[in-house]
Every structure is written in structure tokens, then in C-alpha cells.
Amino acid sequence: MRFVRNRKVVVGLVILGFFGLLAVVGPWVAPYDPSARSADILQAPSGQHWFGTTHLGQDVLSQVLAGARGVVFVGLVAGVVATVLSVVIGVTSGYLGGAAAEGLSAVSNVFLVIPSLPLIIIITSTLPETTDLTIALVIGLTSWAWGARVLRAQTLSLRRREYVEAARATGESTWRIIGFEILPNLTAVIAASFVGTVIFAVLSEITLAFIGVSSVSEWNWGTILFWAQSQQALAQGAWWWFVPAGLAIAVLGTALSLVNFGIDEYANPRLRGGAGTRKDARGRVVRMRVGFTPVVHSGQKDAQEVGR
């Protein structure tokens, strides 16, 4: 409950829930077909078109609503795939040891030194068809190395703890120790890795659409930015064409970052806002700050007066 009571987490989860709802019902509640053309060319926001129109008279609001599904879908699928791979490879190589574990660690090191986004661009550009599922799988299969490296380091630290040694001494199986002794202590790291991968996947999906690597016929926020850039919306003063999609990307990234900050505060007591509170000599609450030693001036003066 401490995690849920965190204000950053609450705000982030509410925003994520809103975007999740848009991903489900967005194409249905869109006022127009996002690809339908009309005579209202490059119209500013109005009562008829809340977010304005494009150079073909397409409704920008409908494109933003319809594009939320692809972004959220790619982020979630890629995050799940990358997190599963990082847990399996990182925890296995960290706990078991031996030649197989060293081989898994070497594979993760290879993926670490390869730039992820150029690799994703090369793979997706060579595929005959780039759907949202294809892009999500490619991002997930190429973005697990960093999380696996972190989990391996944490597992190496946990494998010699007293409770793990006690479980091993009582004859517990290896997979039971990993599942019930190691993984519960890695929950915060796994959750942070998942959120970080979702952020990377969302940005990668938008980047691929913006540079024209993925299909520009399937709407997402990157596709909106692609057409706005290719038709020189900024030069024409059509700010409404790209600002809504840019704001949606920024708000979604902020929500994911807030949840990530909440996970860090939950895992690290030093980062909790209310964890370091003390009372001075007069009973007043003094809040400690990370990185600074709290000094209560009034209490020091009282102590000096008592000493005299």
C-alpha cells in the first residue's frame, strides 16, 4: 500500500489508465474516419474539428485517438517480451553459474554493445511487412540486454544471502529457490526494467513511424508527425497538426517516468519523501533531505541553554 499511496505513482497510473482507455475505445469514439478526406483543408481548431485538419482535410483529433492503440500496444508487448527475456537470462546466468551461464552473459554483453535503435531500423526495414506486432516483437527481442545485466548483478548479490543458503541447505530445488527466494527480492528491479523498456519501445515505435520505416498507412502518433513533417506543417503555420501528438507523447512518457520514480522510492527507503522525519525538542516535525544532515537550530539553542 505504500507504493499505491505515493502521489507520483497515483498520478502516473491515472494518466496511464486514461491512455489505456483511449487505446481500447479511441478508434470507436473518433468523430471521423482518420483517413477520410474533406474540403476543410488545413483548418485551425474549431467546434467542428477540435484539433484542426491536415492538408487533405483529415481530422487530427480522430488521428490522435486512433493512433493511441498502436503506441500502447507496441509498448506493452515489447515491454513484456523484453522483461521475460531479461528475467530468464539474467537470473539464470546469475544464480546457476558455469559455462552455460557465462555463455548467456556473453550474449547479453553482445546485445549491450550493439546500438538498439539502428539494429531495430535495419531489421524492420528488411522485413516484408511491418505491423505493430512485428515492430513490438523486434523491439522486445533486441531490448532485453540491459535489464538482464542488472538482474544478473543483483542475483549474484542475493545468491549468497543467509536465507538462500538456508533454503539450499534444507534441500529446496534450484527453481523453487529462484522462484520463491530470489525473484520476490527482484520485484522492484523487474518492474523498473519493464517500465523503462515500455518507454524505449514507445519512443522507438514513434521514431520508426516518423522516419518512414514502419507502415505510414497505420495510424499512430509517429505517423501523424511523419505527415506533418513531410508536408511542412511548421512552415505553413499549422501548429495544430503536430502539437497534439507531441503533447500526447510527452504526457505518456511523463506518466511512465512518474511510475518509475515511485518504484525507485519504494525500493530505496532513502528516496521516500516521508521516511526521514524527526521531531525536535519542541515536538515539531523536521523532514530530512537525502544527501544533507538535518540540523535543528532551535534544539541546539535549547541544549546550549540547558548546558549553561
Tell me what you see in this structure:
This is ABC transporter permease. Keywords: Cell membrane, Membrane, Transmembrane, Transmembrane helix, Transport. The chain crosses the membrane at residues 9-30, 71-97, 109-127, 133-151, 186-211, 239-263. This protein is mainly alpha-helical and 308 residues long. The protein has two domains: 2-275, MetI-like (MetI-like fold, Orthogonal Bundle); 277-308, no CATH class. Helix content is 66%, strand content 2%. It contains 13 helices and two strands. Strands 1-2 form a two-stranded antiparallel sheet. A hairpin with a 5-residue loop joins strand 1 and strand 2 (285-287). The longest helix has 36 residues, at 60-95. The protein is elongated. It starts with a helix and ends with a helix. Mean pLDDT is 82; it is low at 288-308.
Shape: elongated
Based on secondary structure, the structural category is mainly alpha
Number of helices: 13
Can you summarize the main beta sheet? 2 strands, antiparallel
**Poorly predicted segments:** 288-308
Order of helices and strands: HHHHHHHHHHHHEEH
Task: Output the radius of gyration.
Answer: 25 Å
Measured between the Cα atoms of the first and last residue, the distance is 48 Å
Keywords: Cell membrane, Membrane, Transmembrane, Transmembrane helix, Transport
Main location: membrane
Subcellular location: Cell membrane
Family: Belongs to the binding-protein-dependent transport system permease family.
